[in-house]
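Friendly challenge for the regulars: who can give me the structure tokens for this chain first? No prize, just bragging rights.
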Amino acid sequence: MFNPSRSKQVDLLVIAGEASGDEHAAHLVGNLKNRYPNLKVAALGGKNLKESGADFLFDLVDHAVVGVFEVLKNYGFFKELFGCTLQWVEEFRPKAILLIDYPGFNLRLAETLREKGLSKKGGGDIQVLQYVSPQLWAWKPKRRFKMANVLDSLAVIFPFEVKCYEDVSLPVSFVGHPFVGGDYSSPVSYDEKGPLLLLPGSRVQPIQRILPCFLDAAEKLMEYDPDLKIEVPVPSPQIKDCVEQILSHRPTLRNRILIRENLHGLKARVALMSSGTMSFACALAGIPGVIAYKAHFLTYLLGKFLINVPFLGMANLLLPDAPPYKEFIQSDAYGASLSLAVKEILANESKNQKGFKEASEQLREKLRNPQELDAVDWLADELGMA
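First reply, four minutes later:
Bragging rights claimed.
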């Protein structure tokens, strides 16, 4: 299943199972390799980690799923993948493992390494670190106890997350959000003459649910503004195939929508977004828009019972007193409701964009690390290289 490793010596294994984690991990690994070019890094992740200079073992992001029932459907694959990962760790014995979010897989791996006596928490010599916290503040807060038992250190990217771990012994550091770092280049910027961006996500199943709603809204918005340009950025060939398959049933729209494979240099006048990394990038860029999300019905019911947060969008969670984005969840997310919300933004575009820009400035202020300790500093210190 894995590509063969080029080297028997591995200093660091990085595991990122989702597109957002892959982006954060690649940014971290690239900066780390620039500072320490002789560091031997192997990775399971996506296309960004593949281009970061790491010894790439497997494209985990291409197989990302979300939701309890989606995971169960793919149980056989993930069982095999877990076994291959564990076997690789036992053979190559990296000095440290860096887990990027993805708790269902990563925390189980950390727990197994402890049980087998391979990790430091289990009496072994492999250091197990994590960058980007699971969303304990949203659901499964008791995970912090398992994390304290299996991890050596954690770096978080939102300042309020440090408090989530105050009652456990796990060392937790706020290292600032990578999107507000000095070397970060936003993939998207506001342009009053730009297109409507459709951002349905980075996983096939959610895209299959939410993109048709976005397309229904786009059709109505084209009636409102016949000159409206529309773009759909796609992060991978798999997602491109999924989007094209959905658009194949909408021939009128297919000729009006540009599919963008390059996710950098995007411009937008307004955006329809699922909650996720790209929606947060839009918020930091001051781009007006609307957030919408649809899950498997049973996943939604379970989530409604377990999740205890007032919003899905991170920008809204960070600015709860004046949430900048309207959210439409499950049955509320349909073409007419989404198009109406976008029309309201466009009807007074100048005033509304000013409000979104002010929100972006507030977000940036919240996410800067006053101690100027970034993720590379934290990781280098943990690896004994600082």
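The first strand starts at residue 12 and ends at 16. DSSP finds 15 helices and 15 strands in the chain. Your move, everyone else.
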